[in-house]
Amino acid sequence: MDKLLDKGMALGISLGGGFIATRIFDFVWKKTTGDDAPRVANDEMTLKRALAFSIGSAVISAAVQVLSQRGASSTVKKIRGKFGDRSEV
């Protein structure tokens, strides 16, 4: 049951963290480049800018994934430690 709780917590943390990280990345991109963050591929965007956006997005996605899994695991351990083997959550 802990694996199910762990996965559910990771999903929730990942969705919340991903939403916040996307907003922050869009804000930083707008301040840095002066343009809105690209949402679809277009021919007007330079290769350099497209690669910068892709790499930045990938780094943030990977970081959110790792941090959400660790956060969920840590939270499940705290819950299990608090309630012991009685936890059927």
UniProtKB/TrEMBL annotation:
Keyword Transmembrane: yes
Residues spanning the membrane: 9-29, 49-68
Entry superkingdom: Bacteria
Keywords: Membrane, Transmembrane, Transmembrane helix
Record keyword Transmembrane present: yes
InterPro entries: DUF4235 (IPR025329)
Pfam family name, one: DUF4235
The protein's name in its UniProt record: DUF4235 domain-containing protein
Organism of origin: Nesterenkonia halotolerans
Lineage: Bacteria, Bacillati, Actinomycetota, Actinomycetes, Micrococcales
